[in-house]
Amino acid sequence: MFMGNNMTTSILSRWPLMRWALTGAAVLASLYAGFLLYAQAEPLFGAMFLVLAVAVGVVFLHPRSATWRFVLPGIAAVLIFVAFPVVYTIWLGFTNYSSFNLLTYDRAIEVLMANKSIDPKTERKFAIAGGPGAYQVWLPEDGLLSEPLALDGQAASANLSPADEPAALLAQKEAVKLRKGLAAIVLTAPDDTELRNTGLRAFAAVAPEYERLGPDAFRRHADGQMLTANHKTGFFTLEDGTTIAPGWRVGIGWDNFKRIFTLEGIRGPMLSIFVWTCIFAFLSMAGTFALGLLLAVILQWPHLRGKAAYRILLILPYAVPSFISILVFRGLFNQNFGEINLILEAMFGLRPDWFTDGTLARIMILAVNLWLGYPYMMLLAMGFLQAVPEDHKKAAALEGASALRVFFTITLPQILPPFVPLLISTFAFNFNNIVLVLLMTRGGPDIPGTAIPAGETDILGSFTYRVAFMDTGTQFGLAGAITFLIFLIVGAMAYANLLAMRRAALRKGARI
Q1: Which alpha helices (DSSP H) does 103-254 contain, by range?
Q2: With a threshold of 0.70, does the pTM exceed it?
Q3: Domain 116-208 carries which CATH code?
């Protein structure tokens, strides 16, 4: 690797024009990407690419920054793909970002002003006469016929004038084919009323639903009510307090966090989900550790025959992709046609409601996770058991200690310290094991009486995913606030893991 780096440096130093050309191309590409993002109303992403362009230019062109040329790609990758998503998600937690508040304020005004209202008094049925390039719109109720129109989808206008009914009118199905062209035309009646196509069968006068009176003030034509922009909530509000869509993104401070801790419809299920998440992560960690260690000890038994075959069979769950195993188990636990219920019914007359009973659903989730996780622990335990000195075991056995006592007093204390960081990592992984939950139960069965989607088998990760992407309101801001809380918890676990690894290393006379 060092040879390759030295060769690259040599090439760039021999051909400075190549270095300038490549660096200039990278800087221009970053600046162009930043400009496009800024033009798409994404200033944060645009600023990120601007910083990247400056960093590339300085590092690869300044003679004193040669040592940073091989570090910059790694730093940029960490900042773009790790740090930035974390910071951006946390920032969302302090906004009202949701499916109701996706737009910017200017875009929300454009959508509001684009709303049109139809005057039912002017609504008239129509028919089409003529042929390609010379179509005419006939309003039979008023006896008015338009000037010839192309109806090719281009904006056009025509006057209406009294006339006799045309001899040949197009059938309704033929007129439907011209709906794109009809939508683009404006017909002017003899009284100067402008009529537009409002459906497959009618033309009518169409007017803007709202009139803008000021920067944040509007009036609704239908009833004259005033509409004002509330920049604290990100919605337009009528005089009676009714909110009008669309909304726009605004910062709301700690409101999402207040909702989490004060609203019973959120606080209650989230507290229940948090407790279940901790229980699920701990039982998954303890269960896989216990089962993996037990199987490793059995495979270490010197009188066991066929160890190689047993090892292969027991490692198979680790070799199969987890999502395939989860989907297979979902079919096995099917309440109506699954093999597990068929066997239980045939033997004991039982047909458990695995997916509709909260307790059974949690037991099912734990059982499947135990199957998926024990091979990893078994492989680790097989390696750690090899490091335990046989002399210690033999000495304890000579003094009359049973095999069980030798295991708990000699073997387990020696393999547990190196296991501790791995157990903490396993706990943290299962704390966010949303793939298992979403593929197996989708969080169900649902908890009744909640203000947001929450289920008995939801863990914090799957709960956040459902709030962000599966709720009717897709509340990204609230999901960002929950993610921030999860980030703090997992960060504390990572710090505890670091301390555990450092203590384990110090016991061995090393320092991390």
Answers
A1: 105-113, 172-176, 179-183
A2: yes
A3: 2.40.430.10
